[in-house]
Amino acid sequence: MKTKSVPRRPAGATTRATALDRAREPRAPSDPVSIRRVRHGDLDQIIAIDATVTGLEKRNYWKSVYRRYGVAGPAERQFLVADATGRVVGFVIGEVRDWEFGSPPCGWVFGIDVEPGSRLAGIGARLLEAICASFTRAGVRKVRTMLSRDNKLILSFFRSQGMMAGPFIPLEMDLDA
């Protein structure tokens, strides 16, 4: 029977974590974090998180998203925030969509973000878990999203949560102006 050879550390070597190892370790949030539905008073903080990440302040866009997903409406529409003792540190937005692209109804996540200083604490995973629970209560058994292929951060996040390439291929073309 053949056994695998396990590399041995030289005598006196330590198992000290490198800075990279420490950066990859989940950080505990300094405040307790709860996931809840968005409130109108959260908009400025959401706009600030998005502007920090994208470099653009899209106030009118976020007001429109709030009117569609944040105001109490159908259970199929979700706009949730991660609240760290009164401070919004992340958000997720999505809805159940019916029969698009020839698929049965499924949940779509079209926005998720966590402020950079609160990342690696499991907040994004909790936001995704909460919206997926809402989708399950709405009767769907699949969740989808779409992202830019060069956004390695969000691609890595979704893959770490168990998402993988789906059966659809996005196509596009430029329109003449």
Helices and strands in order:
Blueprint: H1 19-24, E1 33-37, H2 43-54, H3 59-70, E2 77-84, E3 87-97, E4 106-114, H4 123-137, E5 143-145, H5 152-160
Parallel strand pairs: 4-5
Antiparallel strand pairs: 1-2, 2-3, 3-4
Helix pairs in contact: 2-3
Brief account:
The chain has 5 helices and 5 strands, in the order αβααβββαβα. It is an alpha+beta fold. The model is unreliable at 1-29 (pLDDT under 50).
Commentary on this structure:
It is built from 5 helices and 5 strands. Helix 4 links the parallel strand 4 and strand 5. Strands 1-2-3-4-5 form a 5-stranded mixed β-sheet, with helices on both faces. Helix 2 crosses helix 3. The N terminus is likely disordered. By secondary structure, the protein is an alpha+beta fold.
Estimated helix fraction: 25-40%
- Look at the helices and sheets and give the structural class: alpha+beta
In total, the number of strands is 5
Sketch the major β-sheet.
5 strands, mixed
Element string (H = helix, E = strand):
HEHHEEEHEH
Give Rg in angstroms: 20 Å
Mean pLDDT: 82
Unreliable residue stretches: 1-29
Q: What sort of overall outline do the alpha carbons produce when their principal axes are compared?
A: globular
Strand order of the largest sheet: 1-2-3-4-5
Question: What is the count of helical runs?
Answer: 5
Strand content: 15-25%
CA(first)-CA(last) distance: 70 Å
